[in-house]
Design a protein that fits this description.
The chain has 96 residues and is α+β, with helices and mostly antiparallel strands. It contains 2 helices and 4 strands. It has one domain: 2-Layer Sandwich (Alpha-Beta Plaits), CATH 3.30.70. Strand 2 and strand 3 form a beta hairpin. The longest helix is centred in the first third of the chain and has 21 residues. The chain binds the ligand O=C(O)CC1=CCC(=O)O1. Its EC number is 5.3.3.4.
Length: 96
Amino acid sequence: MLFMVEMDVNIPLDADPELVAQRKADEKAYSQKLQAEGTWRHIWRKTGLYSNVSIFDVESNEALHDLIMALPLYPYMDMKVTPLNRHPSAIREDDT
Ligand SMILES: O=C(O)CC1=CCC(=O)O1
């Protein structure tokens, strides 16, 4: 199942810099592990924003929920989740 997830990051100005740096490092490692496994198919920075658009390939809604809840930066994020279906005009075989 494919999902588009838009993640807006809002870190409070008074947050502990060491804690934030650790969470960013953990987020990067978590993201890159899931990308290497093929679960986190794409991640794009939205130009000019501390925000990304990502495509996930997961088994179920519950799997996506668990993945999102485990994001180290989750406490600082607003999420928008959009389920995706294959477009009838798509020509890429892996867009399913
Ligand atoms: O910087 C972001 O958009 C938040 C984020 C998600 C995965 C990652 O490495 O950073």
